[in-house]
Amino acid sequence: MKKVVLTMATIMFSAGMAVADPLEGTWRTAPDDHGDTGLIEVAPCGDALCGKLVKSFDSTGKEKPSTMIGRNIISETQNKGGGTYKGKIYAPDRDKTYSSKLRLTGDMLDVSGCVFGICRNGGTWKKVQ
What is the domain range of residue 81? Predict the structure, then answer.
């Protein structure tokens, strides 16, 4: 009886533990039109994933202030399986929000998006945490 109770407790405890999505963490963006990059922290937001800008860097790699700190760059993003994600991505350098397609391979994330039939390759982001 003791063994049954212990097994059930273990199963219930394990079921309550959340498994992190591989997209969660901190990502270094590819350089934008101005050569600037940023750190995007991806975490759950409701039933989706969102990514906020937490640091901004100029083209020389020096940290710089930005009014975009704290803004969601990635939003409404869903895991579609096989390393593919779809959602929204905001490009501060163009002040546009795109329907995004993200492709995760290991610690690399290929980013692209389209708005009104105009598509943009957002480059490859690298996971830093």
Answer: 21-127
pTM of the model: 0.82
In tens, the pLDDT along 11-68 reads 444 444 568 999 999 999 999 989 999 999 999 999 999 999 999 999 999 999 999 9
Do 30 and 125 form a contact (C-beta atoms < 8 A)?
Answer: yes
> What is the chain's length?
129
Assess if residue 56 is contained within a domain: yes
Strand, helix or coil at 10?
helix
**113: domain CATH number?**
2.40.128.520
Contact 76, 88 (CB under 8 A): yes
* Residue among 106, 99, 70 nearest 85 (CA): 99
Domain count, the chain: 1
User: Which residue in 2, 21, 16 sits closest to 85, CA to CA?
Assistant: 21
